[in-house]
Amino acid sequence: MRDQFETVIGLEVHVELATSSKIFCSCSTKFGQKVNTQVCPVCMGMPGALPVLNKKVVDYAMAIGLATNCEITKNSRFDRKNYFYPDNPQNYQISQLYFPIARNGYIEIELEDQKKRIGIHEMHMEEDAGKLIHDEWEDASLVDYNRSGVPLVEIVSEPDLSSPEEVVAYLETLRRTIQYLGASDCKLQEGSMRVDVNLSVKKLGSKELGTRTEMKNLNSFKAIKRAIIEERNRQIEVLEDGKQVVQETRRWDDNKETSYAMRSKEEAQDYRYFPDPDLVPLLISDEWIDQIQKSQPELRGDKKKRYIEEYKLPEYDADILTQSKKMADIFEETLQWCRQPKKVSNWLMVETFRLLKENNMEPEDIRFSPENLGKLINLTLDGGINNTVAKEVFEEVFYKNIDPEAYVQENGLKAIDDTEALKEVIQKILQDNPKSVEDFKGGKEKAFGFLVGQTMKVMKGKANPTLVNQILREIL
């Protein structure tokens, strides 16, 4: 029966911008500092303290708007959204309701070689609230106001999404775009990207939308997928039981894989919006928009195309490398030390991604320098070390960012280039393996690989593989 229902999803994505100071004061936005050490009368909501707009916030907001095909609102302004909550020091939030910074945009997502355009209804700037810290031992909640006043953009999509897979594709595309712009690191685990899911179900083919609920507390793509599936099933069960879905805000508990009602959903009038009297209207000129447009960096689509054309990389390599701006940056910087695009790509896509996966890390967590990766690849290309040793050395580069050239020298790992010594070893191996010699002369190339392996085994992996191959073929 559940295939008789359609899912309709819209997203509200809150992104903390990468400014050094807050949106309306000069307090630092640095993450993870001692509680209540990055506050002042403005972000603490003290009487008489006046906000002053941070221009960099507007620059970033416009950059995101332009990159997501939005129209920039030339006559924009800020409004007060009034509500009481312990982590909201002013008892109102400065936001944008009537004239948001950007509107009517879209993002194109791709799933199984099919493209779909997801509309962006609007994008507005606002200030973040503080953070409640729940002390279970004392049975109390404390407030850290360091986050209060950190600049946000809220990106509101149209209800164009219909599955968990589409939602994740949209969020990944949006996050990548913002990271490429340098406007935010978009770390869900640190709260610099937060997602609210508005979801409803309706009968298949019906034009009338169902009653929606909003789910909060979603801090990973996996949690978002699980929450969508669970809420869809919950709403269908309610309807199949002959009941009505209640419009409400629900909190997702990822450990229990269930959501529960927090409060009935508010309407805009409940917040008593009105223009903020302390902030003048924001007038954006064509010159300002043009300046932001010209300063936009190369985004993922253009970069991927360039990698294929300029570096002759396979489309698969270009697709993987450009999924993360950090990985793309490492690739390009490594090329300054090693002019072998495909070799660099292979080391990033195989060994680097292997260690990232083993350590549950993201590309943004990489700490080794591209110079050291380039040096390591050059060592393998010059025959200074073989691939087995190179993989061992790379682990030291990955974890400790050591200089591979110095490490190889200090640990006696350099490949042995003594031709006469290698000839003696190879002659002995050929004498001990007459069947393999016979197989090779009979046209079995695998026998050659076996003899190379035996040589490397005797030399404890330190022989120059290029030289081993050359000598072995000459003698055979």
From TrEMBL:
Give the EC number: 6.3.5.-
Q: Does the keyword Protein transport apply?
A: no
Reaction it catalyzes:
L-aspartyl-tRNA(Asn) + L-glutamine + ATP + H2O = L-asparaginyl-tRNA(Asn) + L-glutamate + ADP + phosphate + 2 H(+); L-glutamyl-tRNA(Gln) + L-glutamine + ATP + H2O = L-glutaminyl-tRNA(Gln) + L-glutamate + ADP + phosphate + H(+)
The Asn/Gln amidotransferase domain covers: 329-476
Cell wall biogenesis/degradation in keyword set: no
Which protein family is named in the record?
Belongs to the GatB/GatE family. GatB subfamily.
Please state what the protein is called. Aspartyl/glutamyl-tRNA(Asn/Gln) amidotransferase subunit B
Q: Gene symbol?
A: gatB
